Fold this protein.
Amino acid sequence: MSGLVLKLGPKERVLVNGAVIENGDRRSRLSILTPKANILRLRDAIRPTEVHTPVRRVCYIAQLVLSGDASEEDGGAQLLSGITQLRAAFDDDDSAARLKDAEDAVVSGDFYRCLKRLRSLMPREERLLALGQGG
């Protein structure tokens, strides 16, 4: 059996193709067999009040596409624009590779992979912002 396997804790919620699904009282595993299903663990979701940095803003756009609150066309265009802007701040080779992979994911319609790559830049962004504030 192939596909994505989700391991959910008790009462954990996940968004699958726009529907919120809540697990029961015990740990469980779900196998997602549908290719390109849009899936987001709600514990990992960025809330609108947490969108206060450039990387978080671009991640939030990817989330909106995954939740069905933005079209792939509109969200994809915004993501590509945001990734281009992030390249100005993240000029090291590793970050450039992650941004390239995020961009490739948008082009291929894999918004989950895009979100995953962009989220990996959040700790770096926090360090850059702390340095910029003299910390």
Observations:
- The first strand starts at residue 4 and ends at 8.
- The radius of gyration is 16 Å.
- The chain has two domains: 4-43, 46-132.
- The chain has a mean pLDDT of 91.
